[in-house]
Design goal:
This protein has two helices and five strands; from the N terminus they run E-H-E-E-E-E-H. By secondary structure, it is of the alpha+beta class. The chain has one domain: 2,3-Dihydroxybiphenyl 1,2-Dioxygenase, domain 1, CATH 3.10.180. It has a five-stranded mixed beta sheet with strand order 2-3-4-1-5, with helices on one face. Strand 3 and strand 4 form a beta hairpin. The chain is globular, with a radius of gyration of 15 Å.
């Protein structure tokens, strides 16, 4: 594996995007759609934060982890060979 990036579940993606842009200097480099996006990607240098819309308005973070790898097939095989259950 090369890098690990968090994926945060949030109830309002647009507000969260504006917070990370305005306060921390991130840029939004992807949104699933213009209005009411289900997911987004924020980047600042080599940092990335993935956002996913939560169906539960009380959810602020989740246990989702995004892995960036060079060879996804090799990493998948290595993880499943070690007993990791991938959903």
């Amino acid at each position: 594996m090369n890098k690990i990036f968090p994926c945060l579940k949030v109830c309002d993606i647009e507000t969260t995007i504006q917070w990370y842009l305005g306060f921390l200097g991130f840029q939004c480099t992807h949104k699933s759609c213009i209005k009411n996006p289900d997911n987004a990607l924020l980047e600042k240098g080599n940092l990335k934060i993935y956002l996913a819309k939560s169906d539960n308005r009380e959810s602020y973070a989740s246990n989702i982890v995004v892995f960036e790898v060079t060879d996804i097939n090799a990493e998948f095989d290595a993880l499943t060979d070690s007993g990791v259950i991938i959903i």
